[in-house]
């Protein structure tokens, strides 16, 4: 790769990712209200929405689990730009559907389109963008570059959420569809291929008719099965070759498992307990996105050379856990806003893990390695709804098993709940104080 194309390629990549993420994120604050209005109008609680959301996450996760390594591996052979075209184009379809109408029937059409397009789109654009950056940046600068890429996505998140805060729901989906189209056109016109033409093994689009496209090794209908088996073997081989890669995969799985459960349940929890709506969701996301942007664009390039990726990974995981804990014990509507500020540090893990992974493989395996980590995150997204969707519905229902003060999803706290909770904690403190003489006498 010639150095003269490096900066230009990354600049166009950053613009492409900004436009794409803007189109994806602008609809996030309104989807809860749209889903509830289409399926359970006039209600703040809806089991159908929770289970449909979980089902969509499971289907998307299972599909992405198989697709991500395949997309990454194909991009190693046929180029990042070529593979980016498919998910970015498919992303337009569900957004255009909701821009047309948001009735119950259209919502189900959107649901089906979104579920099956997300199998290819969910995570693949970021996976290919990370591989693109790895093609153009030296190992020593990859963590900072990945952080900048994540910061660009966070900036898009903030800008999109600000727009959603002031736009109507209908206009929001129209803007999203327009930006999705614009991002695809910009990518095709301006983004240069990061892999030199002489290193690409084959072109996906060819003038000659291929008997078995992209699957030259195994003839006949056994090709698809054989390729899936081969991808699994390649994943296992990469894991065995590198202990750090295996460790990052495990950390990625468990952190994604927690994050997926939090994102799947927190919006319904906040809506049921504090009656959050589109505007409050947008405010919360703006705080989270702004903190993430500042962290990735300003703190990450400074902290990586001083602390290295491993320490930053530990710091990020600690603050991510603290954010989840603070949110789950929220006793007032302002607590989620304070928890969102933790994104200053909780956003570190993804960039750090991707950087560590990129250093464990050769340049011709970057797409495959990033695809493996993305597929492991997808596996966590499959497992998470199986546990969190029933639990969320159970604790949001009238038959919740218990109502532990401040540590419950129960939407109908008793009257004067804040006073009751304060008295509860005061009683705990007093009990501990009274126990001190007894503990000293018996055990010290």
How are the elements arranged and paired?
Blueprint: H1 6-25, H2 28-39, H3 47-78, H4 80-90, H5 92-100, H6 104-121, H7 124-136, H8 139-166, H9 169-190, H10 222-241, H11 243-274, H12 278-328, H13 335-340, H14 343-346, H15 348-358, H16 366-396, H17 417-443
Helix pairs in contact: 1-7, 1-8, 1-9, 2-12, 3-4, 3-6, 3-7, 3-16, 4-6, 4-7, 4-9, 5-6, 5-9, 7-8, 7-16, 8-12, 8-15, 10-11, 11-12, 11-15, 11-16, 12-15
Structure description:
- This protein is mainly alpha-helical.
- It has helices at residues 6-25, 28-39, 47-78, 80-90, 92-100, 104-121, 124-136, 139-166, 169-190, 222-241, 243-274, 278-328, 335-340, 343-346, 348-358, 366-396, 417-443.
- It is globular, with a radius of gyration of 24 Å.
- The model is unreliable at 1-8, 200-225, 404-429 and 435-444 (pLDDT under 50).
What's a concise summary of this model?
The chain is mainly alpha-helical and 444 residues long. It contains 17 helices and no strands.
Q: Based on the structure, what is the oligomeric state of the protein chains? A: single chain
Q: What order do the SSEs take from the amino end to the carboxyl end, as H and E? A: HHHHHHHHHHHHHHHHH
Number of helices: 17
On the 0 to 100 scale, the average pLDDT is 75
Q: What is the structural class?
A: mainly alpha
Q: How much helicity do the residues have?
A: over 70%
Shape from CA axes? globular
User: Largest sheet, described in full?
Assistant: none
Integer-rounded radius of gyration: 24 Å
End-to-end separation in angstroms reads: 69 Å
**Residue runs with pLDDT of under 50 for 5 or more positions:** 1-8, 200-225, 404-429, 435-444
As a percent range, the share of strand residues is: under 5%
Number of strands: 0
